[in-house]
Amino acid sequence: MLFYLFYYFLHRYWSPLNVFRYITVRTALASLTALFLSFLLGPWMIRRLRAMQIGQYIREEGPQSHQVKAGTPTMGGLLIVMAIVVPTLLWADLRNPYVVAAIVATLCFAAIGFSDDYRKVVQRRNLGLRGRTKLALQTVTAVGVAIVVLFLRGNWEYSTELIVPFFKRVHPNLVIQGLVASPHWRLLAYAPFAIFVALVVVGSSNAVNLTDGLDGLAIGCVVIAAGALTALTYITSQAKFAQYLDLHKLAPAAELTIFCGSLTGAALGFLWFNAHPAEIFMGDVGSLALGGAIGVVSVLIMQEVLLLSIGGIFVIEAASVILQVASFKMTGRRLFRMAPLHHHFELMGWSESKIIVRFWIAALVFALFSLTTLKLR
Fold first, then answer.
1. Angle at alpha carbon of residue 306, lines to 265 and 79, rounded to 5°
2. 172: cis peptide before it, omega within 30°?
3. Which residues make beta-bridge pairs with 161?
4. Does residue 292 contact residue 204 with C-beta atoms inside 8 Å?
5. For residues 302 and 159, what is the distance between their CA atoms, to the nearest angstrom?
6. N or C: which end of the chain has fewer CB atoms below 10 A?
7. Could you report the per-residue pLDDT of 286-330, keeping only the tens digit for each?
8. Which 3 state secondary structure label does DSSP give 173?
9. Other C-beta atoms within 10 Å of 148: how many?
10. Is the pLDDT of residue 10 over 60?
């Protein structure tokens, strides 16, 4: 909205306003706006949630040290989502379908998380949506993203290809080529791509949700991952950078950089209140939305495989849960003292602050490594 006001309507009267046509300027402004909104509305939201007695419920089987956190205001993810969407609406070109797709997908995942959190608050226990129901809603949203992506990419020859780190000439195509030309089976030809996108987006959403177990742990890792995605989105949309790094140039994705900037600023602002000891928790409305947003952006800029590295901590946390469950079902023994992995270190005697900072360091290493892979091919 401000983009249209300053650039399309007022720049003809004052030429310095032409600066608002630059993606870098609007991305910086979006990040600062998100940060300002978080600082401005954070204290008010904490007071409101306390007044409404919307507090966190702690698992009985969890570490006993977490019981002191019971009653801390939750559903703070509403603040995060607001701080992502509002700056994007203010500074992005809303005619861009990539931006609209990212916003809508984020709101859908936020709605799923809100429904889960609301049920927990109403029922006054650590239960929400049934696991199958939540997974089904996430999958439907992710498949919708896959369909939108196919329409956005149109007839590009690489529309369903994957970019594989370290391998310059390896671009596997997730389409059954023999069925593309068939009018009856054409939809089935794109099924592998839709399934892959669903796995990426749903996996990303749930991975962030599983990581959200210590004060500031998940949101700090999101800040780092979102920052890396901001850089990747900008690079992908610029012809010179894309050609130099042998990436598929996606010029329309340029506006998506503003969404990523808003995501980074919103996460950083929420970290101010979520840092140990946390004044507010994000809840599923925040973690599912953040994970979904990260997954959707990676799909839109064709960096789905690299997301495994960008969100390395999220992958490790999710993998620890999968391995724990699989090991217990198959052998009756647990690989970790408790899953996700951060609880294992807690039970080993590590302090909460030490775990959080060390996981942040690891997340930063993963993000930097991800950016270096662009040239190491």
1. 25
2. no
3. 173
4. yes
5. 9
6. N
7. 999 999 999 999 999 989 999 999 999 999 999 999 999 999 998
8. strand
9. 20
10. no
Sign of CA dihedral 28, 30, 36, 42: negative
- Phi first, then psi: give them for residue 246, nearest 5 degrees: 60, 45
Alpha-carbon distance of 221 to 361, in angstroms, equals 9
Q: How far is CA 64 from the centre of its chain?
A: 30
If you write DSSP's letter for every residue of 284-321 in order, what string do you get? HHHHHHHHHHHHHHHHHTT-TTTHHHHTHHHHHHHHHH
CA angle 175, 176, 178 (to 5 degrees): 135
Peptide bond into 165 cis (omega under 30): no
Contacts 24+ apart (CB under 8 A), 63-72: 63/338, 63/343, 63/346, 63/347, 65/346, 65/352, 69/278, 69/281, 72/278, 72/279, 72/280, 72/281
Number of H helices, E strands in the chain: 16, 0
Kindly report, residue by residue over 249-273, the tens digit of the pLDDT: 787 888 999 999 999 999 999 999 9
Q: How far apart are CA 88 and CA 103, in angstroms?
A: 8
Q: pTM of the predicted model, to two decimals?
A: 0.91
Phi-psi region of 216 (alpha: psi -120 to 50; beta: other; left: phi over 0): left
For 161, the 3-state DSSP assignment is strand
pLDDT tens readout for residues 125-179: 556 678 889 999 999 999 999 999 888 876 554 577 788 887 777 778 888 777 7
Question: Which residues are CB-contacts of 180 (< 8 A; sequence separation ≥ 6)?
Answer: 186, 189
Pair 294, 225: CB distance under 8 Å = yes
Residue 253 one-letter amino acid: A
String of DSSP letters for 192-231: HHHHHHHHHHHHHHHHHHHHTTSTTHHHHHHHHHHHHHHH
Would you state the structure tokens that stand for residue 317, as one six-digit string?
Answer: 């946390």
For 159, the token pair is 């529309």
Cβ neighbours around 83 below 10 Å, total? 28
